Amino acid sequence: MAVSKGKYIKLQGKKWSTFQLSKMIMALVLALGFFMLIALRFFSPPETSHHRLPSVRRTAFQSDGLGKRGDQWVEFISWEPRAFVYHNFLSKEECLYLISLAKPHMEKSTVVDSKTGKSVDSRVRTSSGMFLNRGQDKIISNIEKRIADFTFIPIEHGEGLQILHYEVGQKYDAHYDYFVDEYNIKKGGQRMATLLMYLSDVEEGGETVFPAAKGNFSSVPWWNELSECGKGGLSVKPKMGDALLFWSMKPDATLDPTSLHG
Questions:
Q1: Which of 21, 172, 181, 229 is the most exposed place for a label (fewest CB within 10 A)?
Q2: 167: in domain
Q3: pLDDT at 246 over 70
Q4: Model's pTM, two decimal places?
Q5: Could you tell me which residues are beta bridge partners of residue 76?
Q6: Helix, strand or coil for residue 6?
């Protein structure tokens, strides 16, 4: 699971004369109005009844990295939270490589303590996992670059990749990926978005479920393939090589409670 963090850049302003400043303000107002129209067009939910999920939109992407990825396209699935599925984001060879890399180093997964910001054991998370170093090798670097290209978030703003394994019956209860403690926010900033990459297929279950999402959940193409648990909200069925991108923050940089997932 790759999680991105938000950072900010402070720009040093120039000094302007009164006349220059007036012209500059007028130009900025016009430019701001133009960009606001673009932003509203891009970020606003479509005007449909009951937030019906839109149809699939297919886009071709150039293949790179280890192995062949086949046809790739991005499928928009939700406005609240903002969520997209990138089909065939990883090749089969990349998935198997990541699994083999992680297998010898798996440990019991932990959660972040909201008071101390430390990692602690918890019954809400029973999986096993491990972390990779950023840019650990050429294959990892290629995947990280692909993530940055897809999300428009620079590699250096992201955490290292985390590989998780769930046995039958294991779980991670519904939770937020954004931080609610000051310790982690001061340490590295708030988490903006998460990219989940599925490394294997499953016979049943294993869905990523958003119980607080808003929309017509049954309109997703894979609705009839979901488990009973998966029908408890907006769900994405795991498929080897697919990637799920969802945002924990709204376009106005406030935290999005509909990003609750498990």
A1: 21
A2: yes
A3: yes
A4: 0.73
A5: 84
A6: coil
Residues 6+ apart with CB under 8 A from 71: 60, 87, 88
> What's the N-to-C CA distance of the chain in angstroms?
13
The region, left, alpha or beta by phi > 0 then psi within -120 to 50, assigned to residue 135 is left
DSSP annotation of 100: H
Considering the domain boundaries, does residue 16 fall inside one?
no
CA distance 192 to 185: 11
Q: What is the layout of strands, in order, in the sheet containing 107-108?
A: 107-108, 128-131, 162-165
Cα 108 from chain centroid (whole Å): 23
Mean of all residue pLDDT scores within the chain: 79
C-alpha dist (Å) from residue 52 to 12, 34, 79, 250: 44, 28, 10, 19
- Among 245, 239, 246, 242, smallest CA distance to 213 is for 246
What's the domain count of the chain? Answer: 1
Three state DSSP letters for 145-166: HHHHHHHCCCHHHECCCEEEEC
In a domain, residue 180? The reply is yes
Which pLDDT tens digit goes with each residue over 36-52?
Answer: 333 333 344 444 444 45
Domain of 158, CATH number, reads 2.60.120.620
Q: Cβ-count burial of 56 within 10 angstroms (0-12 exposed, 13-18 middle, 19+ buried)?
A: middle
| Structural domain boundaries enclosing 220 | 73-247
Cα–Cα–Cα angle for 32, 35, 37, nearest 5°? 110
Burial class (CB in 10 A: 0-12, 13-18, 19+), 128: middle
* pLDDT (mean) for 53-63: 50
- Nearest in space to 76 (alpha carbons), one of 111, 98, 43: 43
